[in-house]
Amino acid sequence: MKFVYDFAEGNKDLKDLLGGKGANLAEMTNLGLPVPPGFTITTQACQQYLRNGTHVDGLGAEIDEHLAALESKMGRRLGDPADPLLVSVRSGAKFSMPGMMETVLNVGLNDASVDGLSRQAGGNDRFAWDSYRRLIQMFGKTVCEVPGHEFEDALHDAKVAKGVKDDVQLDADDLRALVTAYKKVFVKHTGHEFPQDPREQLDLAVEAVFRSWNADRAVLYRRQERIPADLGTAVNVVAMVFGNLGADSGTGVAFTRDPASGEQGVYGDYLSNAQGEDVVAGIRNTLPLADLERLDKRSYDELMQIMATLEGHYRDLCDIEFTIERGKLWMLQTRVGKRTAAAAFTIAAQLVDEGVIDLDEALTRVTGGQLAQLMFPRFDLSSSPDSLTRGVGASPGAAFGQVVFTSARAVEVAASGTPVILVRRETNPDDLPGMIAANGILTSRGGKTSHAAVVARGMGKTCVCGADEMEVGRDSFTIGSHTVREGETISIDGTTGRVYLGEVAVRPSEVVQYFEGDLDPSQANDPLVAAVHRIITHADDQRRLKVRTNADTGLDAARARRFGAQGIGLCRTEHMFLGDRRELVERLILARSEAERNEALAALQPLQRADFLDIFREMNGLPVTIRLIDPPLHEFLPSLEELAVKVAVAHEHGQSVEHDEQLLAAVRRMHEQNPMLGLRGVRLGLVIPGLFAMQVRAIAEAAVALAAEGGKPRPEIMVPLVGAVQELETVRAEAEKIIDAIVGDSGVEVLIGTMIEVPRAALTAGQIAEAAEFFSFGTNDLTQMAWGFSRDDVEGAFFWRYLELGIFGISPFESIDADGVGRLVRIATEEGRAARPGLKLGVCGEHGGDPDSVHFFHEVGLDYVSCSPFRVPIARIEAGRAAV
Ligand code: ADP
Ligand code: MG
Ligand code: MG
């Protein structure tokens, strides 16, 4: 197996093997762009190292070979005391994990080569010692797990001793002294000296990068982002170039378009006389990239040209890391850039306008998850909230919460259900748990490319960064004379960067207004609304899957229809038994004679009919699937404990409570150990005479009533929890009689079908299809019964452990388990259609609105998915994406 690739051997499509960074460095090298030479150690080497826990056979020899080639290309030997070659050792996985893993710069420096480096730089001692101290710091932290703050404290002390504020104000002697201090820190924590052998430094750094794949924060990040745990990282060894050689040097990051809005222009940050991570870490405040034109026009022009080349080549927004060494520009990284949800849509539409991509490809450049983010509400500023300050809008959204200052505190307060805003000077990967727990993130330093900004955008979390008027302390922050303490509430706007005191009211997003029909996309001067309109319209043209909604009221039905629903896939009737109607259900349950029961049912029927008529009206012309009552009836009765206490207390006071006593007896009688596996669904219909009949009558009468008004009702009666065709046949025979009697020659057509949610139903779908005109997969119950997981209990009880062990990467209740539950869906689809060609097939579980599941249902060949009204646009986009 080949473990090492020269940059010239790779290309951008080899991300699996070379990681994103390595693949793109190779691509840039082959485009003839100025990339410092180097090579990439593959992810396979990493996987092997992590499996064995040590040493990978043959890797050392391959590194020797490529290092020798690199040395001869550069005309310098690694760590040569006279004229040293230095390299960086950089992590780079298939998926970008910003700041999660490790990089060591300046490898090859030691007590001897530091002088050689100084001579190389024309006698620049300061630079050489600064590079050396950075190596010990990064190497110590990354390779030997020396606590980073020890180095930071030593640096801080050096600055205080000298009475200066900035690193750049330390001179060569100060830095030489700092190296001595750093070495002491190193020995104290590791028990041995800082390694002087350059090749040993290189090997140790490579292994440390391998190991960083399994660092806690990397593991957490992968889980959050659903990145598989076994990919491993590649390692890039790159000849060093120096941005810290003086005023004619520097380092920066750039985007070919604004990653927040998608607008074209010059976006990025530049820091002169600095190395690598200084920009990203927000150590010093950066200059806008546009200022580089003034500082170094030649490099600026070349960079602009390279950016145009990269956009043209990748046909998408790229982000870039570059360094200028004494007026010579070097490209250190590029990739198709992360972006906000809004930018994803606007950039895709712009690229279509520019003729770079077509609409099909535009559709692949956005996701339903991004659309979901755009449907979040925004702040309503008409109440003129108190503006505290303004930073950079780094990740959109409107968030409020109690101010907290540490990651741990954020986790703690959020766990009690209180929304929090995590406020930090800057964030680092250790803050990840707090960032996940927080509603929003606010920092005083760093730009759109800071750790806080990048990670928040990835998580879809509201973030404002670089609010530099803010002085962040331990348990408060101040802006001028105003102090905000921990526990006070603030609101942050991740689009505008504004920070407000108190909780600001929110208003719906423009995208939701557009879906509501309140914004005309052709007139909207908002390019985002126009882009969403264009792309979702194309998704509608391309998709094969229809999208219906789950709705129980006319109001929900109407909204879902505005959002593009093509019918109702699940109308739950049990919600219609709640509220004042609970009493009628009690009467039904307590009925002692047929007459009493019929009376209770007769009272319920007109109420149900009115509900159905309302819904049919709103969905006029579109199919409406109504599920007959599903949950165990005792769900409509008071709880056993409460009732028992009430009755006992009444007895104590010598009161007579006959009704409550009867109720209590009924509750006791109906108690079940496993209600979800008990008397519910079709079983209720078979056991309680007249219940289903009442519902069927109400449906048929409502349909006839709408037809009489000139409407076109399309009712579909769905029987829940069927496991055997005989159950369905029994219900069907009764229902057909009732329907025939009511419908007459009104022209109304009523379909009868079933849910497929018991595994046995899926496995005998061929038989069941004989009695069903449609199937709707109830994937919640199907998942629950296929796995034997109680949906209401498992999440909190032990799913975390299953996720940790990788038994599944995501809860099977969130995204369909394609291998197991999905196989049941496939079997039922094939056998159902074989028995009854033209059988209508849909899905009505939560999965109907989950992007990955929508792709699965498309591929299996269902006719529609059904989801909650707000997920309808998301399902439309994803069904379109699945089809192109
Ligand atoms: P990350 O993936 O966290 O961005 P990188 O591997 O890109 O880590 O490196 C961290 C920083 O060091 C970046 O700013 C990068 O540009 C800089 N850097 C990496 N390699 C070199 C090099 N050979 N010469 C100069 N700077 C480098
Ligand atoms: Mg980088
Ligand atoms: Mg169910």
UniProtKB/TrEMBL annotation:
Mg(2+) binds at E757, D781. The keyword Transferase applies. Residues 419-497 form the PEP-utilising enzyme mobile domain. Keywords: ATP-binding, Kinase, Magnesium, Metal-binding, Nucleotide-binding, Pyruvate, Transferase. The active site is at H451 (tele-phosphohistidine intermediate), C844 (proton donor). Its EC number is 2.7.9.1. PROSITE patterns: PEP_ENZYMES_PHOS_SITE. Residues 16-53, 61-285, 294-344 form the Pyruvate phosphate dikinase AMP/ATP-binding domain. The keyword DNA-binding does not apply. InterPro entries: ATP_grasp_subdomain_1, PEP-util_enz_mobile_dom, PEP_util_AS, PEP_util_C, Phosphohistidine_dom_sf, PPDK_AMP/ATP-bd, Pyruvate_phosphate_dikinase, Pyrv/PenolPyrv_kinase-like_dom. It catalyses: pyruvate + phosphate + ATP = phosphoenolpyruvate + AMP + diphosphate + H(+). It holds the Pfam family PPDK_N. Substrate binds at R572, R627, E757, G778, T779, N780, D781. Transmembrane segments: none annotated. Its cofactor is Mg(2+). It is an enzyme of class 2 (transferase). GO terms for molecular function: ATP binding; kinase activity; metal ion binding; pyruvate, phosphate dikinase activity. Gene3D superfamilies: 1.20.80.30, ATP-grasp fold, A domain, ATP-grasp fold, B domain, Phosphoenolpyruvate-binding domains, Phosphohistidine domain, Pyruvate Phosphate Dikinase, domain 2. Residues 533-880 form the PEP-utilising enzyme C-terminal domain. Belongs to the PEP-utilizing enzyme family. PANTHER family: PHOSPHOENOLPYRUVATE DIKINASE-RELATED, PYRUVATE, PHOSPHATE DIKINASE 1, CHLOROPLASTIC. This is Pyruvate, phosphate dikinase. It comes from Actinoplanes italicus.
